Amino acid sequence: MTEQPQVSLVKLGSTDLVLADPGDDIRGRTVVDAAGDKVGKVDGLFLDQDEEKIRLLEVVDGGFLGLGKESRLVPVELVRSVDDDQVVIERDQSTLVGSPAYDPELTDAPDYFSGVYEYYEIGPFWAPGAIYHRPPFHP
């Protein structure tokens, strides 16, 4: 497991911060896999406060009136494309649906975010030599 330094990620909606470009706000857009199958909707964006960069998307699926919904975190490195209505992710629906559930109580645990990146088999943003992958937020 890649050792994780103290990572300070916050959910953008839980802060007074705003995106510099409102066009980058993809919350509410449908998330689909590479084959076009619906996975859920972008419910939140997780910001690396130190670097002021979006690192993770919170994708929510299912539920009615907030009951039974499931949230998962998806690294921005997996965003293939974005248009006015949807976000395309470079993994299939079963991979995204099978990913670990987002648990806000665990975000301070040292290995929590490491586990997310390991599940998707990509290096975490804090690893030596990591290059920031700015999602293609603008259509």
Task: Give structural notes.
The chain is mainly beta and 139 residues long. The chain has a single domain (9-119), classed as Photosynthetic Reaction Center, subunit H, domain 2 (Photosynthetic Reaction Center, Chain H, domain 2, Alpha-Beta Complex). The chain is 9% helix and 29% strand. The chain is built from two helices and seven strands. Strands 1, 2, 3, 4, 5, 6 and 7 form a seven-stranded mixed beta sheet that branches. The chain starts with 8 loop residues before the first strand and ends in a 20-residue tail after the last helix. This is Sporulation protein YlmC with PRC-barrel domain. Pfam families: PRC. Residues 24-93 form the PRC-barrel domain.
Tell me the distance between the termini. Answer: 36 Å
Give unreliable regions as ranges.
none
The whole-angstrom Rg is 14 Å
Question: Helix count, per DSSP?
Answer: 2
Q: Write down the CATH class.
A: Alpha Beta
Under the CATH scheme, which architecture would be assigned? Alpha-Beta Complex
CATH homologous superfamily placement? Photosynthetic Reaction Center, subunit H, domain 2
The tally of strands reads 7
Q: What characterizes the major β-sheet?
A: 7 strands, mixed
How confident overall, as mean pLDDT?
A: 83
How much beta, percentage-wise? 25-35%
Helicity range of the residues?
A: under 10%
CATH topology: Photosynthetic Reaction Center, Chain H, domain 2
Structural class: mainly beta
Order of helices and strands: EEEEEEEHH
* Number of structurally distinct domains: 1
Estimate the global geometry from the Cα principal axes: globular
